[in-house]
Amino acid sequence: MKNNIKYITLLALGMIACEPEFENPIDESGNYESGEANFSNYVALGNSLTAGFADGALYITGQENSYPNILAQQFKSAGGGEFTQPLMNDNAGGALLSGTQILDNRFVLAFGADGSPKPAIYTGAAPTTEISNNLGNTFNNMGVPGAKSYHLVAPGYGNVAGVPAGTANPYFARFASSATTTVIADAVAQNATFFSLWIGNNDVLSYATSGGEGEDHNTTGNLDPATYGSQDITNSNVFAGVYSQLVDAMLAGGAKGVLLSLPSVTSIPYFTTVPYNPVPMDATTAAGANLAYAQYNGGLQQALAALAGTGLLTEEEVARRTITFVEGQNAVVIEDEDLTDLGAINPAFAALPKLRQATAEDLLVLPASSIIGTLADPNTPTSVIGVGVALEDKWVLTPEEQTAISTAQSAYNLTIKGIADAKGLAFYDAAADLEKVATVGIPYDGGVVTSEFVRGGGFSLDGVHPTPRGHAIIANGIMNALKSTYNTNLPKVRPGDYGTVTLSNDVN
Question: Which SUPFAM superfamilies does the entry mention (predicted)?
Fold first, then answer.
């Protein structure tokens, strides 16, 4: 086997990176109206999608191009008031706690030694945002990166003393009104006349990005979010109860609002960029790899024969677990905990691991591109990750795990739409628009926004969060929903005026 198996370069793309615009002009022509809505005091509730988080960090340019800030600028043409945000101190993106950096700088698009573009951590400036310096104010943008639905009602979520232990959120700690307050309490205290709510994506996202390492509480039935792990899926009944509580709290003062559906987690570039078969082999290398797995494949056949007639191991599962390489592109070898534990059935087969090759139905996470084809042990030429050494379960989202995510998101979206209808609120189907971005793309004045990593323009370099151009698409979609529900007439923005990803050579 060759010392290094080179796989397809994922980011060998020809593109021009654009700096986002800080300000975009409002078209003053036309008769703009607020209709039945009152935009004089707009408060946006949500997580990183609302805050303007992008490129793996929160930074000023991303915040100023967040969809709530874009909306607020358009609202001004129909009676909208000022819109304040808890801006970071710089565009580096990292943050400090008592002088020690605890949050990484943002990604920028850089060029490697081989000349190919790829995301890299920005090193051009040190972060200057100190988490412990509370801003002493409430803000119209109440988006808190990392927040799950139930975090918005959790007392102490902004207590800076809890940040090191992970019991509090560093972003909310910067602007929480007290150490014991909740996000929703600080939002309600602002007496909003209009609000937006986009929450719930993180209730499944951390499970997805961890390759399904957490627990699915729709399966466990656990209704106590205080006991949930950070990578768990929130029980849909818990979500429904919390979401209803959030909406009722914002409506208590007579505000109107818009609720946003949750897009499919598995359609974002984080899960669609790395192919399942990124390993090229010539005939000689393939033959060597097959020889290395001959004993493993033979053991599967022995287990099948020994367990014949028991129904504990089928020919279909053995075929799924059999590992074979060919000349050309090959699927990576992965761990799959959903496979039968043969050692538990018969100790004679305890040495047979839960391995198989990935299929087109598996989703490899974006960071896997940095390890596939490298050596797990630099002194062992056959320890090629994805070939001689299986890709760990955390790098792969299997079909079973995708089903758990889809089931939860579908239930969450039924809750969101049901509450919007019952309360007479506007509903923006963000899931539908972002599905278009992922499949056919959404046209705008200068081209088409897609979800293709880097080049598509819709998603930032973390593969999860929208670019400013993506936020512009979302803002226009929300304004369509407001027109339908509240008879508003607001000026749309031009997505082409908004940037995509940032090019920089300030990296190590």
Answer: SGNH hydrolase
Of 489, 165, 502, give the one whose Cα is nearest residue 156: 165
Same domain, 186 and 54: yes
Q: Please report whether residue 167 resides in a domain.
A: no
Cross-strand partners of 119:
109
Q: Are residues 423 and 439 in the same domain?
A: yes
3-state SS assignment for residue 109: strand
Task: Give the residues across from 157 on adjacent strands.
Answer: none
Percent of the chain with pLDDT over 90: 88
Looking up tokens 């002493």, which residue turns up? 136
What range does the domain containing 384 cover?
Answer: 286-357+363-397
Same-domain check for residues 310 and 442: no
Mean pLDDT, range 453-458, rounded to an integer = 94
Phi-psi region of 262 (alpha: psi -120 to 50; beta: other; left: phi over 0): beta
Q: Are residues 73 and 189 in the same domain?
A: yes
Name the token pair of 84. Answer: 């304040």
Q: What's the average model confidence in pLDDT over 410-433?
A: 98
- Residue 110 belongs to some domain of the structure: no
Check residue 15 and give its pLDDT.
41
- Relative to beta strand 194-198, strand 42-46 is parallel
58: Cβ contacts below 8 Å, ≥ 6 apart: 48, 51, 52, 88, 93, 95, 145, 171
Using CA atoms, how far apart are residues 371 and 300, in angstroms rounded to an integer? Answer: 28
**pLDDT, position 111:** 78
Q: Are 174 and 133 in contact (CB under 8 A)?
A: yes
Residue 445 has pLDDT above 90, yes or no: no
Residue 112 within a domain:
no
pLDDT at 505: 64
Q: Are residues 296 and 388 in the same domain?
A: yes
Q: Which two tokens stand for residue 179?
A: 């150490």
Alpha helices per DSSP H over 190-293: 202-209, 217-220, 236-251, 269-272, 283-292
Provide the number of structural domains found in the chain: 2
pLDDT of 147-178, one tens digit each?
A: 999 999 999 999 999 999 999 999 999 999 99
Answer whether residue 100 is part of any domain: no
Burial (CB count <10 Å: 0-12, 13-18, 19+), residue 82: exposed
Confidence of residue 199 (pLDDT cuts 50, 70, 90): very high
pTM of the model: 0.92
Instruction: List the CATH number of the domain containing 422.
Output: 3.40.50.1110
First-to-last C-alpha distance (Å) of the chain: 32
What distances in angstroms separate CA 463 from CA 36, 47, 155, 458, one per listed residue? 37, 16, 31, 9
The count of other CB atoms within 10 Å of the CB of residue 186 is 20
Q: How many residues does the chain have?
A: 508
Tens of pLDDT, residue by residue over 272-312, are 999 999 999 999 999 999 999 999 999 999 999 999 999 99
State whether 265 and 198 are in the same domain: yes
Say if residue 336 is in the same domain as residue 393. Answer: yes
Predicted confidence (pLDDT) at residue 14 exceeds the cutoff of 70: no
